User: What shape does this take?
Amino acid sequence: MSSFKIERHRVRLIPPDMPQVQIQDNELSARPSEAEIERIYAEVFERLSREHAEQAELILEEAGEKARATIAQAQEQARAILDEAAAQAERIEREAQEKMRAEEERRAAEFKKLCEEETRRLQQAHQALAEELHGRYQALVDEVEEGVVPLVMEIVRKVIGVKLSESDDVFLGLVRAGIERLRQQGAATIRVSPEDYARYFGQRPGWQSQLETGDMKLTAMADSGLSPGGLVVDTEFECVDLSIDRQLDEIEKTLGG
Assistant: This one.
């Protein structure tokens, strides 16, 4: 706000219709008093002060409006900046999460692929090892069988031979087994070697009762085509070979593969 100062000795009030001469003549006689000058000075000062105050108030009001508008604009810009920053941060976070998920999926796919490849490799190695072990086992079994089976069969033959020489029950047990299979056919003929016929049938009357044949009619005969231990039971419809050697040969063939 500007200041205004009136110097009293320079204030001079002249009516507009007063002649210059009269003014000069009356200057001395019509000169205002000190009180009048004070009053005029106060009025002028008050009027100027009021005008300056109104002007200052207008300036302040205009400045306030501009300041409020500037503040509002700044606030709006700040909100826009914050909103944009929040949106950008959300976008960056979303992109980061998508990249992270994509990376995790890629790593998971790679790990799955590696696991599948390793599984296939282990399966192939296991299969190869199993085949190799099976081959070795089979070779070992074949090698053992080549030596063991003949040895076992030889031992079995010797044991059976001993049993046959010690007791008649072994051979007669074979005869009973054959008769049991053919019991429903009514009649049968037992063929054995001449040695076995003489031992089990020729010198043993009533041998049929020992075999518990029931109503079945049995006859025995010597067959020179059979060796000791050979046994064939014939009926009208069927022939059963129960020879010990034949049964042992079948067992040996089965064991030998």
Notes: The two ends are 130 Å apart (CA to CA). Helices lie at 20-29, 34-166, 169-181, 194-202, 207-210, 244-255. DSSP finds six helices and four strands in the chain. The chain has a mean pLDDT of 77.
